[in-house]
Design brief:
Strands 1, 2, 5, 6, 8, 9, 10, 11 and 12 form a nine-stranded mixed sheet that branches. Strands 3-4-7 form a three-stranded mixed sheet. The protein contains eleven helices and twelve strands. Helix content is about 40%, strand content about 15%.
Length: about 350
């Protein structure tokens, strides 16, 4: 089926992307009426990788997506260095294995000469418009790559490199992963600035549909079209996890990682809240991995510092599927009443001690 009018926003989260995969895959197979038929998909970091497969949306694309988030070992995705070397090398892990996987997903065996069925699918009218966000490390500006435009207008070999470059740049979280240089510019993970984003093009698609619905209603149409839905998949929880704790060690790197975790968590929550502030009354649906550590799922990451733990990711996939079976699977963000103070909008409760 051709894409619908919904807009789907996919957040970053690294291995937490397994939650989003489990959730969306189960919705599609078991609850198709709840699966967002998106006209536009935006993604950051792991969400950017997901966007490539979700934009295609075929059975084969979903099978490849499930396989991508079920690694046999961490080394299938990153080249892990000893943590202490991060001070010298600038990162804890390299992304070469992930880049090889993306190149192979786009073209057969990673070789454009053998054909690039995924690029062809991304270029087709049946696919959704996908956009991947990342940050220019020098200027701090947020950019996004128009995937369908690349797939349609560039020669296959160039399209493969450009799309893979955007996806890997978006995944290059500072300190954790090796930074990506394209031409003479260094890029960071888009989550440094925004966890979820609406590009101007995505916002335009949403605004056009919403304006049409409001106009039809004002004209007294018996059955005015419903405004397009904004779906947000937060690949992770909105609470702060204890992966890097200064209570267990006060070295400079541990403190830097903890500070980054706090900042990223705030960006994640604020990016979602900003969607509601930008549109006080439009329909917004949200899902997060909150509750991942509670029964019956109780996903535990071992070891604690694992970047991609196969057992943890498998548990997150199951948890995401269970969340999709919940009624309703999506959480509706409450509209802001006219005259309400923005400070009244809160996404999650704060602990009081």
């Amino acid at each position: 089926a051709p894409p619908g009018d919904a807009v789907l926003l996919l957040s970053g989260g690294g291995q937490w992307g397994a939650f989003g995969v489990g959730f969306l895959d189960r919705l599609r197979s078991a609850h198709p009426d709840q699966f967002p038929r998106a006209r536009t998909i935006t993604g950051v970091s792991t969400g950017g990788l997901q966007a490539l497969f979700l934009a295609v949306g075929t059975d084969q694309a979903f099978a490849a997506l499930r396989q991508a988030y079920a690694p046999g070992s961490e080394s299938d995705i990153v080249n892990r260095n000893p943590q202490w070397q991060a001070v010298i090398t600038g990162s804890i892990a390299g992304l070469a294995p992930l880049k090889r996987k993306v190149l192979a997903a786009l073209c057969v065996d990673g070789d454009p000469a053998k054909g690039c069925p995924m690029i062809d699918a991304l270029a087709s009218d049946a696919s959704a418009d996908a956009f991947i966000g990342f940050v220019d490390a020098e200027s701090g500006d947020f950019y996004y790559a128009p995937i369908k435009m690349m797939a349609r207008t560039l020669p296959k070999a160039e399209a493969q490199q450009c799309i893979a470059g955007a996806a890997i740049a978006s995944a290059a979280m500072p300190v954790f992963f090796q930074q990506v240089k394209v031409g003479d510019r260094v890029y960071y993970d888009g989550g440094v600035r925004q966890s979820v984003f609406e590009t101007r093009i995505a916002a335009q698609a949403y605004a056009e549909g919403r304006a049409a619905a409001v106009m039809a209603q004002s004209l007294g149409m018996a059955n005015p079209p419903a405004p397009p839905m904004l779906y947000v998949a937060r690949n992770g929880p909105t609470v702060l996890t204890d992966d890097a704790s200064p209570q267990k060690g006060a070295d400079a790197l541990t403190n830097a990682l903890r500070a980054e975790a706090i900042v990223v968590n705030q960006l994640e929550v604020q990016s979602i809240a900003d969607l509601r502030l930008a549109d006080p009354t439009g329909p917004i649906r949200l899902v997060t991995a909150d509750g991942f550590d509670r029964p019956p799922g109780s996903c535990v990451k071992e070891p604690k510092d694992a970047m991609f733990s196969p057992s943890f990711m498998a548990c997150l996939t199951r948890f995401g599927a269970a969340r999709a079976d919940r009624v309703p699977p999506w959480r509706a963000l409450s509209p802001i009443a006219p005259g309400a103070e923005p400070s009244a909008v809160r996404l999650s409760p704060l602990s009081v001690r």
